[in-house]
Amino acid sequence: xxxxxxxxxxxxxxxxxxxxxxxxxxxxxxxxxxxxxxxxxxxxxxxxxxxxxxxxxxxxxxxxxxxxxxxxxxxxxxxxxxxxxxxxxxxxxxxxxxxxxxxxxxxxxxxxxxxxxxxxxxxxxxxxxxxxxxxxxxxxxxxxxxxxxxxxxxxxxxxxxxxxxxxxxxxxxxxxxxxxxxxxxxxxxxxxxxxxxxxxxxxxxxxxxxxxxxxxxxxxxxxxxxxxxxxxxxxxxxxxxxxxxxxxxxxxxxxxxxxxxxxxxxxxxxxxxxxxxxxxxxxxxxxxxxxxxxxxxxxxxxxxxxxxxxxxxx
Length: 314
Description:
The protein is mainly alpha-helical and 314 residues long. The protein has 11 helices and 3 strands, in the order E-H-H-E-H-H-H-H-E-H-H-H-H-H. Keywords: Cell membrane, G-protein coupled receptor, Membrane, Olfaction, Receptor, Sensory transduction, Transducer, Transmembrane, Transmembrane helix.
């Protein structure tokens, strides 16, 4: 514990409650999730880069989404895994805490922008197929990706700066497995109400701002699909959007619980569960959602494995 009127220069992550045996089970579970996330998303990136059949805007965005998923999980899970192996509390420096929180929030913001762009891409593909290659050209795709990266990093500078301007004099014990902003604000002796409200408005701006084009796009997509006379045509049109739509529901749903709330200092158990959904479960599901129902990607993966087998055999 810290004395009054002093600020923490390092923090201790309490991680997960429970016995040592439970920690070992959690370590094995989350380590498995992390490995699958890394391998699955890396496979997506490699296949999208090397297979000419996947050289389209949808797979271009999917490749960048996989990069973000790898970075988001790597910013959180290794620290969490190390904490599960330690017998006591896990120490993290103030600098490392700032870097982790900034990367986590910035990469998450980029992902929301990219998800909105992917929704617009599906709208153009379904509703304006004849103009698809003209509208979603390489310049447009590169511009969208660059904007998402720049916006994500710039947008989260002030929220992270404002968070660490407070004096953390109550304690330096963070009841979480990473440097969660809500738990950090709990440790402050200052009045954080106004800052929490501004952070709430910024979270609403990012999440709702990227959700609006998604809702509008899918409104037009569903309307267009319902007008297709044949059942096979409707099924084919919907299959091009099903993976993205599923990921949108999971991703936005979990982030609504974590970020879009006026009071950032929620209970630690609530934040832990929501954070696990965002940083562990969603990235783990991403390769499964986007590949298992995608015949073109599955075929490209099979052909890639056959080529690798021939090279190794020779």
